[in-house]
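ok so dumb question maybe but i'm new to this and my supervisor (M.) told me to 'just get the structure for Molybdopterin-dependent oxidoreductase' and walked off. so i did the thing. is this what she meant?? sequence i used:
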Amino acid sequence: MVEDVTDLYREFGDERLPPGQRESSEFPVLSKGGTPSWDRETWSFDVWGAVEEELSLSYEEFRDLPATTQRQDFHCVTGWSGLGFEFTGVPFTEIADLAGVRSDAVHVMFHALDGYTTDLPLSDCLREEVLFAYGYDGEDLPEPHGGPLRVVTPHKYAYKGAKWVDGVEFLTEPEAGYWEQRGYSQTANPWNEERYG
Ligand SMILES: Nc1nc2c(c(=O)[nH]1)N[C@H]1C(S)=C(S)[C@@H](COP(=O)(O)O)O[C@H]1N2
Ligand SMILES: [Mo]
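this is what came out, is it supposed to look like this??
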């Protein structure tokens, strides 16, 4: 079953397409560097920081977690939006529940295989549409798009969705990720055009 969350824009604005965005029929690849390689045997997904129990899950263990398939929009800060992409993955809330987020956690840093990081307030992560996605259009997520695992954040500009994600750090105070240190917005709400911090 595919859950359609393309109406989430109603929480933020009147138009599905955020201001200053144009619809793209393609799904372009945008990375700061090349596509990193990974090894199914040694890959692990780690959760640490302000949690009751730190996690380290193998690829198989991660794939055994409860998953969902959603139709979502995708808004790149450079101005293109993809409408109605289908992603399959594990909800952020599932990981948060497994690790037990401590009451002093307020912020989250995502870590990726290419050294990329991106941060969000915890409340922006604890939403049903924030997924650790391993599937796209019913197939394994292509590696240039972040396979084996990426984050999707349809309520935010897409730089908040770390491709090749393999770590989540819960923080007791905000820290800035890769683009956020270089002037991009920490909150990144497309309907408020929060492109720069
Ligand atoms: N690990 C990692 N994640 C990343 C990036 C990156 O360079 N490295 N680029 C970000 C940016 S700016 C965008 S727009 C989206 C692009 O995702 P796509 O290549 O699947 O379109 O990934 C985001 N996540
Ligand atoms: Mo981007």
